[in-house]
Amino acid sequence: MLHQYISRMFLGSLLSLALYGQTPSIWRPPQQVNWQWQLTNPVDLNVDAQVYDIDLFNNDASVVQALHDKGRKVICYVSVGTYEGWRPDAAQFPESVKGAILPDFPNERWLDIRNLAALKPIIDARFDMCKAKGFDAVEPDNVDAYTNKTGFPLTAADQLAYNTYLANAAHARGLSVGLKNDLDQVAQLQPLFDWALNEQCFQYKECNLLMPFINAGKAVFEVEYKLDVSQFCSSANSLNINSLRKNLSLDAPRTACRTVSTAPAVAGIANAASYNAKAVAPGMLAVIFGTNMGTITFDGVAAPVVYNTGSQAVVVTPYAVAGKTTTSVVVQTNGVNSAAFSMPVASASPAIFTAAATGSGQIAMLNQDATFNNATQPAPAGSVVTFYATGEGQTTPIGVDGRVNTTSLPKPVLPVTVMIGGYSAEVLYAGAAPGMISGVMQVNARVPAAVVSSDVVPVVLQVGGIASQDKATMAVKAQ
User: Which of 38, 91, 173, 421 is most open to solvent, judged by the fewest CB atoms within 10 Å of its CB?
Assistant: First the structure.
């Protein structure tokens, strides 16, 4: 059978396209958000905030994980524009990049951001550390050096080039990135950055300069150190700025202008391959939309998680829903349960994964020669193709939640048929995809000889007489 020699590398890359092609791989904060900024230690883990901004070097991965366990997103604070002599990597900075001492920080010196050859390996390593510790985002600090007396003749163009590098470096690691201060370059840099963090824009009457972020629907985090909350909170809320009153030391105490509920909620559930929201089936990969989502259960049974961004998750529907007509889905975050979300249960709810992860168009499919099926690589009529689906329902042996299938490959209890171009296709294999989690079904089928050449040949999968979505297609080359 074809599944015996398709490499797992191809399988993994193809399913990555199908499952993650249009899912948010980089976390971006909602525009209205409750947050905490603490650069002292130990971090107070019990602040009722959706987002924490904490120091890279002073916190290990366990702190980040503890916050994640509470349903929080975590930002990695790191200075990228100054030399800090106490940091563990301080010896890596050559003397030539160290400039003037910062007026209020005698152990800190400005960096020559023009010398990217010297700085890039150090900053890249710091961003790698953010990623390795599990942070969701990075806050690069001191990125407005050109407006300060640095000891170097830095220009606005130098800063734009450096900040562009920073944004790209963060995104290359799957990290969200914020623009810290640098108000004069907001209009130019907003498209590259996911959010902004500013200090004292109300005190200095500069908040209007942050409007490009607000108008783009992006979050703006802001802190005041001297003003009373009565002097800025009302304006901050009306402008959609997430403001805090903090001590200059950035220790744990804070006063937040806005209170945003951190309670979890489920907004909708659909098949992860087709986005059909009619019903779930045993083992079906389901996409769940909501807010502040943590652990997800179906009738009290925890669902294996493929990924979870907090606002969108893909989980495997527990096989325990088999035989039921409805299931109650509940999300729990930090000990708080969402309202129950009821979904119909079907014996099967088949759907085929598509290459663009839209539920329609080109299928995530391999040709017999192990190439990706597409318009430039059509499958010859009469050849065998492999594609992937979910929602096949209960299997034999009975499906095991979260198991990665290797030697034992369960098959659907219900009969599987395939139509290609309106013709019945010979099904050579329909069962668990080797090396993939239970709930992903692999189908090997022979393209009927009568199918004519086309880049958009319709493919329909039926399980127990229940059909998959009607707009999934493949490319075929006639005999």
Answer: 91
pTM of the model: 0.62
Contact (Cβ atoms closer than 8 angstroms) between residue 229 and residue 204: no
CATH number of the domain within which 361 lies: 2.60.40.10
- The tokens describing 406, both together, are 């290797």
CA distance 131 to 251: 24
Q: Can you list the positions of beta strands (E) in 219-264?
A: 219-224, 242-246, 254-256
CA distance 479 to 476: 9
In degrees and rounded to multiples of 5, residue 8 shows phi and psi of: -65, -25
Please tell me the total count of domains within the chain: 3
Range of the domain at 380: 2-10+350-477
Tokens 């000889």 sit on residue: 449
Output the six-digit token pair for 365.
């499919």
Q: Tell whether 66 and 90 lie within a shared domain.
A: yes
pLDDT of residue 335: 80
Q: What is the DSSP string of 48-67?
A: --SEEEEESTT--HHHHHHH
Both 69 and 193 in one domain: the answer is: yes
CA distance 444 to 439: 16
346 C-beta neighbours (distance < 10 Å), count: 20
Same domain, 329 and 282: yes
Q: Are residues 311 and 338 in the same domain?
A: yes
Last residue of a domain, one of 256, 279, 295: 256
Residues 47 and 184 in one domain: yes
Q: Which of 211, 227, 256 corresponds to the end of one domain?
A: 256
Q: Is residue 419 part of a domain?
A: yes
Among 89, 169, 156, which Cα is nearest to 128's? 169
Query: Do 243 and 292 belong to one domain?
Result: no
Q: Do residues 71 and 47 lie in contact, with contact meaning Cβ atoms separated by under 8 Å? A: no
Q: d(Cα 395, Cα 350) in Å, to the nearest integer?
A: 13
Mean pLDDT, to the nearest integer, of 444-448? 98
Distance CA 60, CA 177 (A): 20
With 50 as the cut, is the pLDDT of residue 174 above it?
yes
Question: What are the tens digits of pLDDT across the range 19-52?
Answer: 544 444 688 888 989 999 999 999 999 998 999 9
Question: For residues 264 and 291, is the Cβ–Cβ distance under 8 A?
Answer: yes
Element (H, E) at 197: strand 195-199
What pLDDT was estimated at residue 1? 36
Same domain, yes or no: 332 and 420: no
10 Å CB burial of residue 374 (0-12, 13-18, 19+) is middle
Q: Sign of torsion, CA 268 404 353 372?
A: positive
In a domain, 19, yes or no: no
* d(C-alpha 200, C-alpha 315), whole Å: 42
Classify residue 120: in a domain, yes or no: yes
CA atoms of 115 and 233, how far apart (whole Å): 41
